[in-house]
Amino acid sequence: xxxxxxxxxxxxxxxxxxxxxxxxxxxxxxxxxxxxxxxxxxxxxxxxxxxxxxxxxxxxxxxxxxxxxxxxxxxxxxxxxxxxxxxxxxxxxxxxxxxxxxxxxxxxxxxxxxxxxxxxxxxxxxxxxxxxxxxxxxxxxxxxxxxxxxxxxxxxxxxxxxxxxxxxxxxxxxxxxxxxxxxxxxxxxxxxxxxxxxxxxxxxxxxxxxxxxxxxxxxxxxxxxxxxxxxxxxxxxxxxxxxxxxxxxxxxxxxxxxxxxxxxxxxxxxxxxxxxxxxxxxxxxxxxxxxxxxxxxxxxxxxxxxxxxxxxx
Length: 313
Fold this sequence. Notes:
CATH superfamily of the largest domain: Dihydrodipicolinate Reductase, domain 2
CATH architecture of the largest domain: 2-Layer Sandwich
Structural class: alpha/beta
CATH topology of the largest domain: Dihydrodipicolinate Reductase, domain 2
Largest sheet: 6 strands, mixed
Number of domains: 2
Distance between the termini: 46 Å
Number of strands: 12
C-alpha cells in the first residue's frame, strides 16, 4: 500500500490530537481504495480481512476491537462481502464507533426486514451508505437543475449503466443496480417498483448479467433503468431527464475521485451530501421489491443461490 504497517501496540498508542482513526473491514478492491484515500486524507488506518494473503492488521473484527479501547476508532468503513454487512455494522454499533460508512447495499435482500428492525432508532448521523455517485459532478449538476426547476415538471427519466466485467461473479442488480437506483432516488425522490426484467445470457457467468426496472416517482415521473455487465465496447453511464420545459442528457465520468470525495465528506461530517442509513434502507427495499416481483411473476430463483436467472414483468 506504500504506507508503514504498525503493530497493534503501536496503533493503540497512536493518537495525534484531532486525527481520524479509521477501521476498514475488508481489503478487497473497494476496501483498499478506502484505505488509500484515508491515508491520503491524513488518517491512521487499521485493517481487517480474513484472507492472510491480503496482509491486513487483523484477521477478524473481534481481534481488532479487542486490541483497542472503545474510544479509539473515530470512524469505520464496512467493505467486506455483502453477506457480512449487517452483522459487521451491528458489531461496530455495539462497540461504540461514532461514525460508520457501509458499502452498498446495506444487507442481503433476504435480510431487509431484519435490517429495518435492528436499525430502528439508530442516530441518523451515525451510519452512512457508500453511494458515491452522489459526488459525481455531472450528477450534482443535474441535481441543481432539478432543484432550480430549470426543466419544469419532470415526466420521464431514463438511466443506463453498461460495462464489461468478464471476471466479475456478482449480481448486476445488487452492484450496478443499487448504485443507479440510489442515483435515481437522489435526483427524483422516492420511487416505487412497477416492473422488472433480469436475465442471464450465458456470456460471462452463472449470475444475472442484465436487468431493466420500471419505476414511478411520487410525483408521477416515469423512470426506466437499464444495467448490464456484458457491454464489451466501452463503459457507458447515461442519465436523461425530460421535463415540460426541456430535456437534459448527461454522461457522468466515472473516473472522477468520487470515493475520495465521499470519504472526505464522511470525515468532515457532511451529512447533506452523504447517503444516509434511511437511504440505505429505502434502496434495499427497492431492490427487494424488484426481486420479489420477479420471483412472483416468473419464478425467479433466490439470487444468492446462483444459477441461471430470468424473470419478467
